[in-house]
Write a structure and sequence with these properties.
about 375 residues; alpha/beta; Rossmann fold; 2 domains; 8-stranded mixed sheet; 6-stranded parallel sheet
C-alpha cells in the first residue's frame, strides 16, 4: 500500500502523537509498504528520507491555538494523497481536517482521534462543524482506548466507524544494569531514591500536585521532573515556597540516554495529569516497558487509568490529590515485594498490550478491513 500520514510534526520534534506517527510509519515501511509523512517545521520546505520513511517537512507560516498553518502543507499534502491508498490523519489538526474534505472518494481516510479539542472555548465551538464534516468523510475513526471512545461526545454519532487501537511503542529493553544517572541528577539525589515524571509543563499535566506531594514523601525519596513549558518558573517558585526545592528537581529537556537512565532507576513513575487532554499517556508505556511501577490518576473519560491497571502495573489515585499521590508513591517505595510485583505487571502489560509490533499489525488490519471492533 501507499500510505500518507498527515500530522503536525515528526521526530526529532517529540511528543506523544509524533512518537505514534513514527512507530506506525517505520513499522509499515519495514513491512514493505510505501510510507510518507507530511508535517510542519520552522525551516524551508524539504523532503528527506528518514530511515525507511519519506518525510516532507513543510514551512510553518502561521500558528494559532496550537495549530500550525502553511500553504505548502495544503499543496503537498493533497498532492501526495492523490496517489495514496490510505491517508492517515492525526488529529486534532485543523488544516488536515479541511484537506480531508478535498480527498478523492477512492482514497481511504483513517482519522486517528488522539484527543478531543479541549479548553479552546469559542474557537473549539467554531470548529465543531468542520470536525463533524471530517468524521463524516472518514472511512474509519481510530480511538486510542475504549474508555475515551465511550466518553468522547464528538465521536458518538460515528460509533459505527470507531475502532479502538491501543498505542504501542518500540521496546527500549529492561534487562541488565541501568545506565548511570546524569551527573547533575546524581548530585541532587545524593544517594536518595527518586520518583520520576516527565512532560510539557502545562496546567493539565498536574505537576503542581506532584510538587505539593513531595513534602509528604519519605526523606530518602525525591522527585525528578523532566521537560519544559510555560509553567516551569511558577512550579520552581512553588517548590521553593513549600520548602521542597531540595526535594524536587526540574531537569529541563533530556536526551534519550538521560531519559532512559532516569526511567530505569526510578522507584516509581508518576503521571499526575488532571484533565481529559491527557487522553492516553504514551509516556506511561515508556515506564511500563522498562518494568517501572506507575502511579497515575483516575481521569474520568480518559484512557490513563485503563492503561495503568490499578493493582497490577501500579496504582491510580484521584486527580488533583497531592496527598494521594504521595501515599501511593510512598507505599511502593516502602514495600519491595509490592514494587517487584508491580514492576512485573507493568512489563507484562507492555508486552501483551502495547508493543510496537502489536500496534502496527492491528493498524494494518484497520487499513485493510475497516473497524474491527472495540479493541483490547
Amino acid at each position: 500500500m501507499r500510505i500518507v500520514h498527515w500530522g503536525k510534526y515528526y521526530p526529532p520534534h517529540m511528543g506523544g502523537i509524533e512518537s505514534v506517527t513514527r512507530v506506525l510509519a517505520e513499522g509499515h515501511a519495514a513491512a514493505g509498504h510505501t510510507v510518507e509523512v507530511i508535517c510542519f517545521h520552522d525551516e524551508a520546505t524539504a523532503t528527506q528520507q528518514v530511515g525507511p520513511v519519506r518525510v516532507t517537512r513543510c514551512r510553518q507560516r502561521l500558528g494559532a491555538a496550537s495549530q500550525p498553518l502553511g500553504w505548502d502543507y495544503w499543496r503537498l499534502g493533497l498532492g501526495r494523497a492523490r496517489d495514496a491508498d490510505i491517508v492517515h490523519l492525526h488529529g486534532p489538526n485543523l488544516l488536515a481536517s479541511l484537506m480531508a474534505l478535498r480527498l478523492a472518494k477512492s482514497t481511504r481516510l483513517i482519522v486517528h482521534w488522539h484527543s478531543d479539542i479541549v479548553g479552546k472555548g469559542w474557537l473549539g465551538r467554531l470548529l465543531r462543524p468542520l470536525e463533524q464534516a471530517m468524521l463524516a468523510r472518514a472511512d474509519v475513526v481510530v480511538c486510542t482506548s475504549p474508555p475515551y471512545a465511550e466518553h468522547s461526545r464528538p465521536l458518538q454519532p460515528w460509533r459505527h466507524k470507531l475502532s479502538s487501537v491501543p498505542i504501542g511503542i518500540e521496546d527500549p529493553g529492561h534487562a541488565g544494569s541501568p545506565p548511570a544517572l546524569p551527573e547533575r541528577v546524581e548530585r541532587f539525589l545524593a544517594g536518595r531514591r527518586h520518583v520520576f515524571s516527565i512532560g510539557r509543563l502545562v496546567p493539565y499535566k498536574g505537576f503542581a500536585h506532584l510538587v505539593d506531594a513531595a513534602a509528604q514523601l519519605p526523606p530518602d525519596l525525591a522527585v525528578v521532573i523532566g521537560g519544559n513549558g510555560p509553567l516551569r518558573e511558577s512550579l520552581e517558585a512553588r517548590a521553593l515556597a513549600a520548602g521542597v526545592a531540595d526535594r524536587v528537581l526540574f531537569t529541563g529537556g533530556l536526551s534519550d540516554a538521560e531519559l532512559d537512565a532516569l526511567m530505569r532507576r526510578a522507584t516509581a513513575f508518576c503521571l499526575p495529569s488532571v484533565a481529559r487532554s491527557e487522553a492516553f499517556g504514551v509516556v506511561l508505556l515508556e515506564a511500563m516497558a522498562r518494568g517501572v511501577p506507575v502511579v497515575a490518576t483516575r481521569i474520568a473519560g480518559s484512557g490513563v487509568p485503563w492503561v495503568n491497571r490499578d493493582g497490577d502495573s501500579g496504582l491510580n489515585v484521584e486527580p488533583g490529590d497531592a496527598q494521594a499521590l504521595a501515599a501511593a508513591c510512598s507505599r511502593i517505595a516502602a514495600d519491595p515485594a509490592l514494587r517487584e510485583r508491580f514492576a512485573q505487571g507493568a512489563r507484562s502489560n507492555f508486552e501483551q498490550r502495547f508493543s510496537a509490533q502489536v500496534f502496527a499489525s492491528t493498524m494494518l488490519d484497520v487499513y485493510r478491513q475497516g473497524a474491527p471492533g472495540p479493541g483490547l
